[in-house]
């Protein structure tokens, strides 16, 4: 069995946290068998928990970009998309999906199963990282909490790239602290080929290594040198730059095929040009800090960890003497902190939508550090972890009292169910009609392979697309009533029944200016402005959808 790493010496040139892994007397075959069994355990658990979600049609960015691109790769063999403008994301996960479809056939069940396999592999990497940095109890607790953390849970079966990139990053960080430079370069390269922003982690570690080399001679006290990577490690800092090479090769190939480097101009403007605003960055940083330490019950873990810091370490009887439970070595925490700071800075400056999934590579590092603190200092740490786990599970089903991205908990399932039912209603009542709607419903109605409409059972829809269902957009559509016969309208933003800061006009203006916020009109108001009647209407947990027949 995998045993706890209870003795870590900060004085040794190679801390036991990773040297013990190298000198373990277990045969290599036995270690591989244990990892295979752990992967099977994680995969079976994820499949069981996600069973009701495996056949759901694709949601939002899945339907709008990643599934179409993977499907293009399956049909044409080219990683450059044909059915949608390219965003220049590296193709590794999309190639994995295309391979799964080639082997098992195209279906949402195959897609979500393939992604759950990647999620299980990611949890295995996190388990190894936590075990190497701390010990076995902390590794189990950390892995369990991350698996049920609402953002990680929902992303586990989605055809998106952020969670797989996080998984490869976990494996790379484990190799980094275990002093395995070759494997470290491999995993970081795979992470960068999954999503380009994963290159932040090796670059942050490279910068930290350089800083360590420059300040080590100036540190007089030994205790301050404990935050620096131990001397005598085989890892060469320039191995951390190797992942730049495959990522640069991908961008060179992409540029040669498309003529633009970092995605199509609209994508680049939305995610980079329009976000580099000195007023927006600190606001986005505040949101990122909340996602890192407070989102969906994380505040309970953060508060418990901070309070535990005021307690002395617990002790264990080792060879007749009381020994304090060890912490994660300071140099490992400093390495984690360098990666976290890199993500905080970059993700606050770049990214049109401040999505929580972008922080998945670093949120588990925070969970690991806090769980390790509780294990070291809190006598009833298991009860605290259990309470946090209950909060995470509750967060899957209970929406927060503020606007949030539907993909961050099971609200995305409500969206899919409502849209699938409304699409079937349209197919039965108004086959072949001209439909006014907004993205992503415009793709849901025109691409049967997304799972919302059946091409064999109805005539194809002709879609007239608007940006959203705000008053300004509906007024524009009302002037062109002759161009559509029916409208499919829905809530594009989650609006809680009693939102925080509801009457704070200044905050509403800030969200509109910097974060693309708008308020959708209610179906009754839209019907009145379009001169139509509501023939279908459904509401579910703060979301709504309606079909409006336009009267002539």
What would your notes on this structure say?
This protein is of the alpha/beta class and 552 residues long. The protein folds into 2 domains: 16-402, no CATH class; 410-550, no CATH class. The chain contains 23 helices and 7 strands. The termini are far apart.
**Coarse morphology:** globular
**Count of runs of 4 or more consecutive helical residues:** 23
Helix content: 55-70%
Find the structural class using helix and strand composition.
alpha/beta
How many structural domains can be distinguished in the coordinates? 2
- Name the strands of the widest sheet in spatial order: 4-3-5-7-6
* Multimeric state: single chain
What is the strand content? 5-15%
Largest sheet: 5 strands, mixed
Uncertain stretches of 5 or more adjacent residues: 1-25
Q: Any idea what the radius of gyration is?
A: 25 Å
Write the layout of secondary structure elements.
Elements: H1 16-22, H2 28-50, H3 61-76, H4 92-104, H5 108-133, H6 136-148, H7 150-155, H8 162-177, H9 181-194, H10 200-215, H11 222-225, H12 244-258, H13 265-273, H14 280-293, H15 298-308, E1 315-318, E2 321-324, H16 330-349, H17 363-377, H18 381-397, H19 411-429, E3 434-438, H20 441-446, E4 462-466, H21 471-478, E5 486-490, H22 505-514, H23 523-530, E6 532-540, E7 543-550
Parallel strand pairs: 3-4, 3-5
Antiparallel strand pairs: 1-2, 5-7, 6-7
Helix pairs in contact: 2-5, 3-4, 4-5, 5-6, 5-8, 6-17, 6-18, 8-9, 10-16, 14-15, 14-16, 15-17, 15-18, 17-18
